[in-house]
Amino acid sequence: MGLKYLLYRQQIERSKADNASCEEARRAHAQLAELYEHAIEKLTQGNLSFFEAPDRMRAQDWSNELRRLTTIYSATEVHASIPRC
Fold it and tell me: 17, 44, 82, 85: which could form a disulfide with 28 (CB 3.0–4.6 Å)?
């Protein structure tokens, strides 16, 4: 995945989290945004980070999780599983 795509998806998920009508959907979109943020950090080798040092998790772990989810499910399927409140 390219950096532009990851940044775009991160912004979309943050926007959806901010505008979600219930806590469950808000949390799901925020978690997806965080996966994209970690993938961005890994791709940019830490030059672009959304996290403070103590909160920084291993970018490799998050990147692997994002890859796993997008391999198993299409983006449409992942988004379809988010509750609509």
Answer: 82
Token output for 76: 């449409």
Torsion sign (Cα): 26, 29, 34, 35: positive
> Which residues are within 8 A (CB) of 29 and not within 5 positions of it... i.e. 6 or more apart?
13, 14, 16, 17, 20, 82
Instruction: Give Cα separations from 30 to 45, 53, 71, 76 (angstroms).
Output: 22, 19, 20, 17
Name the residue ranges covered by the structural domains of the chain: 3-80
Kindly report, residue by residue over 17-55, the tens digit of the pLDDT.
Answer: 999 999 998 988 898 898 888 888 888 887 877 766 544
Token digits for 73? 């499910």
